[in-house]
Design brief:
Helices cover about 40% and strands about 20% of the residues. The protein has 16 helices and 22 strands.
Amino acid sequence: MPSEPVGPHPQELVDDLELDRGVLIAGMWWPTADRFPVQDPATQKVIAEVAHGTATEAAAAVDAAAAALPAWSATSGRERAEVLRRAYELMIADGERLAALISWENGKSASDGRAEAAYAAEFFRWYAEEAPRSEGRYGPAPAGGGARTIVTHRPVGVAALVTPWNFPAAMATRKIGPALAAGCTVILKPAALTPLTALAVARILERAGVPSGVVTVVPTRNAGGVVDRWLADPRVAKLSFTGSTSVGRGLIARAAERVVNVSMELGGNAPFVVTADADLDAAVAGAMIAKFRNGGQACTAANRFYVHADVAAEFTARFGAAVEALTVGPATSGADIGPMVSGSARNDVARLVDEALATGARVAHQAEDLGDWYYPPTVLTGVAPDAAILREEIFGPVAPIVTWEDEAELLRLVNEPELGLAAYVYAGRLQHALRLAESIEAGMVGVNRGMVSDPSAPFGGVKQSGLGREGAREGIREYQEAQYFSISFD
């Protein structure tokens, strides 16, 4: 198999980042003594070395964002909209190279890379349309007396953004888009495994006309040190984090010391429910998307499959056949499933599967195993309802199946975990599907549909899966504070 990207080559995008010059802050390069490598998960070869940002660069980024805030927040919503619209158009125009870069540093398939590039661009388009529509309210006070109330929304201020490696473009634009639309300036720390895509997005924003200092990206291997520096700075008014629940809890605790406004999109453990009267063709098609999109490395990925006993054998056979047909390999080969993002990520998935097998589960269906950082798409049956693989987020291409008959017991199992991000329900009768969906403790439920992510919808979870929402009108509100004026007419 080829070891270098084919088609539009992302090397030009990487070269354009001028990585050897250091960290770019407000139009000035900050050379750093230390650097860290970014690897191609398909080959483990080093793609590039990136400047390692320290507390010094973190502080400089805040300086730049704070200096740029008054002018940017004073621009009209229409001006900000035009910048975001140009960023959308530039991302679409260069979508193939950006998709290739995503696949190169992340390992995901070429089709997943293209889907992410297009999805990421949509957040700039959506918030270009939201920027001029930050409406308020006006009306008489209910108690009378001639008082009038005006409610408006203003940008929260400098926003610190922390994004994960699994969707390096989309997680950046999903935060940057609403922040810029609201009039905030941003400082972004991308994941150390995939910083190149975030840097490329920042260059696109620069070309679109974002003023100097409004968006700064600080790559680093010391995530805790950089983010702690930001949270300690009184000029940082907002923290938006996407990542694990354990890390999110720690950040919430540190943010509480200064009462920093936080948004948290944390872990998921999505159930996928199939009822006895479900359309099995549709359920299998939906399961392939919900489970294997991004190789299973998604917080919204179906993690636990609960299939009614009456259709379990047929569903498993159809689903298993589709899984066995998946091709595994690097993005350059056109494969359906790429490698895991790292060797440790692969080992974590292997551990969960080995533990499940040791407690009675069996491998019912499996695609090709290429070794290295690849994990073969796998279907497990005979999984014990209390198995660790059902309690922990798998974050890989493994589908454990549990059968059910009693709906009350099903809902107990579905709602037992502390996480509640996404869920999926396939049922023949829409009323039944909606009743089940309303009984599931999750922020998002796909009803006879294997995907829940959409820029026009509020993305987020309940319980330990996070705070706040991203996308839709709710997304821009995360970067605004309400202010009201009480006016006397006497």
